[in-house]
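Technical annex, item 7. During the second reporting period the consortium partners agreed on a shared format for inverse folding records so that results from different sites could be compared directly. Each record opens with the tokenized structure and is followed by the designed sequence. A conforming record, contributed by the partner at site C, is shown below for reference.
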């Protein structure tokens, strides 16, 4: 059953990993997809895959941490499709570091993409999503809901995404807009290489960064985004849904 048929959807981070899998999943389920990514070549490749499989998609470049760039991708989407129903904020970066080695540059970069970028995209999309009675699905992480060592900036940014999700959900609860969040656990993506423990890491903390040996495929995460964006989730609002093979348990 097509859960998001005919919904105009923006996926940030659509060039790779969970974002790419989610863009393809939305298209397979009948949505028209904007593949948005800072890497326009990667976004175009995802778009071409969707179109080759009979779906509808366009590729747009966006730096979600830049206020004007975020505004432009929303404006370009409206210019092309005429409306917006779903925004999936999946673009993200991360890096494991000892707390004393977190530089100001790394701290601000991670926060600006993961948290500020999520807000910028949502803020610019808001007028259109209120009109369509649409919804936002953000991407947090197990690091945003559970203790994760060597990840101060990343954990702070993803915890912030959970709080932002709740705030926006309750702010617009009587306006027909839903805002939810997916919290992935360890997943087979290129960004995974950035989360290797420091060489001198305390091995006693290893179960906190990889509590289970099972690592998800991006497609398993994509299904959660499609569901939360669909009318099947019409009474789900302000939640952070763990999709982590039970690692939080």
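Designed sequence (site C submission):
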């Amino acid at each position: 059953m097509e859960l998001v048929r005919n919904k105009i959807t923006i996926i940030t981070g659509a060039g790779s990993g969970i974002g790419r899998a989610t863009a393809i999943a939305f298209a397979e389920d009948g949505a028209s997809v904007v593949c948005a990514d800072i890497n326009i070549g990667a976004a175009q490749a995802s778009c071409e895959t969707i179109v080759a499989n009979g779906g509808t998609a366009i590729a747009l470049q966006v730096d979600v941490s830049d206020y004007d760039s975020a505004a432009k991708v929303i404006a370009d989407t409206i210019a092309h499709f005429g409306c917006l129903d779903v925004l999936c904020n999946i673009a993200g970066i991360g890096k494991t570091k000892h707390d004393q080695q977190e530089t100001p540059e790394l701290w601000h970069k991670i926060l600006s993409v993961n948290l500020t970028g999520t807000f910028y995209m949502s803020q610019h999309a808001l007028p259109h999503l209120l009109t369509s009675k649409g919804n936002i699905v953000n991407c947090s992480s197990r690091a945003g809901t559970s203790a994760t060592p060597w990840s101060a900036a990343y954990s702070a940014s993803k915890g912030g995404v959970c709080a932002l999700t709740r705030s926006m959900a309750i702010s617009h609860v009587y306006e027909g807009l839903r805002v939810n969040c997916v919290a992935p656990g360890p997943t087979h993506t290129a960004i995974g290489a950035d989360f290797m423990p420091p060489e001198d890491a305390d091995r006693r903390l290893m179960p906190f960064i990889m509590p289970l040996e099972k690592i998800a495929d991006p497609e398993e995460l994509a299904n959660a985004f499609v569901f939360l964006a669909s009318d099947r989730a019409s009474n789900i609002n302000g939640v952070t849904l763990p999709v982590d093979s039970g690692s939080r348990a």
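The radius of gyration is 17 Å. The first strand starts at residue 8 and ends at 12. All partners now use this format for quarterly exchanges.
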